[in-house]
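2024-03-11 09:14:02 DEBUG pipeline.ingest accepted 1 chain
2024-03-11 09:14:02 DEBUG pipeline.ingest length=102
2024-03-11 09:14:03 DEBUG pipeline.predict start
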Amino acid sequence: MLRVVVFFVEQGVQDVPKNESEQFFLDITTETCPMTFVRTRLLLDRMPPGATATVRLAGKEPLGNVPGSAQALGHTVVSIVPEASGREAPSDVWLVTLRKAG
């Protein structure tokens, strides 16, 4: 059974599961750069190696910066898909799935 973990970085949750089969979710649609990747990085740092996280983001700048910065740190971009079918403008909401290196 797959368990999805919703992780609120801004609340400083310390008890992050250590099971790499668990999936993490982070919504940064209300954040602006550079906080979009800061929040993503905090999540990635707390995840076990091999775990995946889906980051919900909006806007052209985070759509370019979050996946690019994650790759620069050695993580894998698994997918980048629009949240709603037919809504594929850079300013729309996107779901970026990342796999932590390690």
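2024-03-11 09:14:41 DEBUG pipeline.report The longest strand covers residues 52-58.
2024-03-11 09:14:41 DEBUG pipeline.predict end
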